[in-house]
Amino acid sequence: LQQWRQAGGVTQRDPRFSVVSDSDLQFFESVLGDTGGVVTDPHELAPFNKDWMGKYEGAARVALKPKTREQAAAVLRHCNERRLARGVGLVPALSLLQGGNTGLVGGSVPVYDEVVLSTAAMNQVLAFDAVSGALTAQAGCILENLDSHVAEHGYCMPLDLGAKGSCHIGGNVATNAGGLRLLRYGSLHGSVLGVEAVLADGTVLDLLTTLRKDNTGYDLKQLFIGSEGTLGLITAVAIHCPPRPSAVNVCYLAVPSFEAAQQVFVAAKQQLGEVLSAFEFLDRESLLITLRHLPGAKDPLPSCQARRTARRGPLSRAAPLYVLVETSGSSAAHDGEKLGGFLEGVMAAGLVLDGVLAQDGGQARAMWHLREGITEGLRHRGAIYKYDVSLPIGAMYRLVEDMREADWPPIRVAGYGHLGDGNLHLNVSAPAYSEELRQQIEPFVYEWTAQHRGSVSAEHGLGLMKAGCIGYSKPAAAVAVMRQVKAALDPRGILNPYKVLPLPAE
Amino acid sequence: LQQWRQAGGVTQRDPRFSVVSDSDLQFFESVLGDTGGVVTDPHELAPFNKDWMGKYEGAARVALKPKTREQAAAVLRHCNERRLARGVGLVPALSLLQGGNTGLVGGSVPVYDEVVLSTAAMNQVLAFDAVSGALTAQAGCILENLDSHVAEHGYCMPLDLGAKGSCHIGGNVATNAGGLRLLRYGSLHGSVLGVEAVLADGTVLDLLTTLRKDNTGYDLKQLFIGSEGTLGLITAVAIHCPPRPSAVNVCYLAVPSFEAAQQVFVAAKQQLGEVLSAFEFLDRESLLITLRHLPGAKDPLPSCQARRTARRGPLSRAAPLYVLVETSGSSAAHDGEKLGGFLEGVMAAGLVLDGVLAQDGGQARAMWHLREGITEGLRHRGAIYKYDVSLPIGAMYRLVEDMREADWPPIRVAGYGHLGDGNLHLNVSAPAYSEELRQQIEPFVYEWTAQHRGSVSAEHGLGLMKAGCIGYSKPAAAVAVMRQVKAALDPRGILNPYKVLPLPAE
Ligand SMILES: Cc1cc2nc3c(=O)[nH]c(=O)nc-3n(C[C@H](O)[C@H](O)[C@H](O)COP(=O)(O)OP(=O)(O)OC[C@H]3O[C@@H](n4cnc5c(N)ncnc54)[C@H](O)[C@@H]3O)c2cc1C
Ligand SMILES: Cc1cc2nc3c(=O)[nH]c(=O)nc-3n(C[C@H](O)[C@H](O)[C@H](O)COP(=O)(O)OP(=O)(O)OC[C@H]3O[C@@H](n4cnc5c(N)ncnc54)[C@H](O)[C@@H]3O)c2cc1C
Question: Which among A290, B114, B189, B238 is most buried, taking Cβ atoms within 10 Å?
Answer without folding.
Answer: B114
